[in-house]
Amino acid sequence: MRTLTGIQPSGTLHIGNYFGAMRPAIEAQARGECFYFIADYHSMTTVTDPEERRRHTLGVALDWLACGLDPARSVFWRQSDVPEVTELAWILGTLTPMGLLERAHSYKDKTARGISPNFGLFAYPVLMAADILLYDTRRVPVGRDQKQHLEMTRDIAIKFNQTYGETLVVPEAEIREDLAVIPGLDGQKMSKSYGNTIDLFGDEKVLRKRIMGIVMDSRPPAEPKPDADRNLAVQLLRLFAPPDVARDFEDRLRAGGLGYGDLKKALFEHYWSTFAAARARRAELAANRDHVEAVLRDGAERARKVAREVLGRVRRASGLE
Ligand code: ADP
Ligand code: TRP
Splitting the chain (321 residues) into consecutive groups of 10 residues, what average pLDDT does each group show? Predict the structure, then answer.
């Protein structure tokens, strides 16, 4: 049972990404074969600064390896190191109805936000289908926002099989509805596009300042707070502190006597220590880029073996060979 997912190198990862996507993906390694890749071709649809792409590609690789992606167990590579995916995307594109792409929410959302549409952005779901189908993938864990892309992938695979005979594995989406949406510093969903994130890794001073800067109401410390369970710092503290510690802070806030400053200080300390081991590993990896490059290159080689086999099947079925 092969699990596959892609991560765009389009920004600095935050704790919403960690709890919503990375931790479940890392845990999935214990249950079967995992294929994880950095979707650098996809990032080209919105990012056009080469330095930015290089920086985020390295950053995302370091983040995942530091957080526990195990290259001995899983296959981890850079999408563009397996260029077979673009050939498959072309072939699939010829079977993809225009209407299907025109209905894509993510395309409509992105253009509504002012991103000027290019062919790549329009064809994004076809390349994503190729990412998945090229590796005979069974399961694709993604956030709810990617559900439609997975449905399109299934439609395209079925269409290929109907047109050219049973060739491609039709995958299942694994949408984690159970995963809470991690709130950002303003209480909305944490997202890099809202500027309300707590980064997973970064400078201690900057991050301390961000957490200490969370805006609270003006009730004095002594006043009891019956709404303590909805306090943002308490909600975030639950992610990082042992349950009894988080509950103790919540109780003290409810009873009155705990100042917001002390609560935020505790939040920072627990957040900081949660990622202490990963931070140390990340620093080691960052000082050893050759190793990171070697991991990605080895991953690409392993991925490519599967890719060549599946593409061979596709080429033979469709009469290219
Ligand atoms: P962003 O909203 O910051 O641009 P992405 O859309 O790149 O994040 O999301 C990458 C992954 O992280 C997706 O699987 C998404 O579901 C998950 N994710 C992003 N933000 C959150 C959040 N606030 N809570 C839980 N999961 C999140
Ligand atoms: N579109 C996904 C996102 O923005 C990234 C992605 C690209 C992906 N190719 C994929 C996810 C294949 C799963 C499978 O989050």
Answer: 91 90 92 96 94 96 97 97 98 97 93 90 97 97 89 98 98 83 92 91 96 95 96 96 97 96 98 97 97 98 98 98 96
Distance 138 CA to ligand 2 centre (A): 15
Distance CA 217, CA 222 (A): 13
pTM: 0.93
CA of 39, nearest ligand number: 2
- 36, 25 in Cβ contact below 8 A? yes
Domains of the chain, start order: 2-182+289-318 (3.40.50.620), 202-274 (1.10.240.10)
What's the chain's length in residues? 321
CA 38 to CA 28: how far, in whole Å? 17
* Separation CA 37–CA 117 (nearest Å): 25
| Whether the CB of 17 sits within 6 Å of ligand 2 | no
| pLDDT at site 78 | 98
Let me know: does 107 contact 117? Beta carbons within 8 Å. Answer: yes
Q: Which residue type sits at 179?
A: L
19 contacts 26 by C-beta, under 8 angstroms: no
Among the atoms of ligand 1, which is closest to the Cα of residue 8?
A: 7
DSSP one-letter code for 20: I
Alpha helices in 94-196 (DSSP H): 98-102, 105-112, 119-133, 147-164
Contact indicator for 2, 47 with CB cutoff of 8 Å = no
Q: Quote the distance between the C-alpha of residue 206 and its chain's center.
A: 23
Partnered with residue 250 across adjacent β-strands are none
Q: What is the DSSP letter of 3?
A: E
Strand (E) or helix (H) holding 268: helix 260-274
Residue 38 backbone phi and psi in degrees, to 5? -95, 115
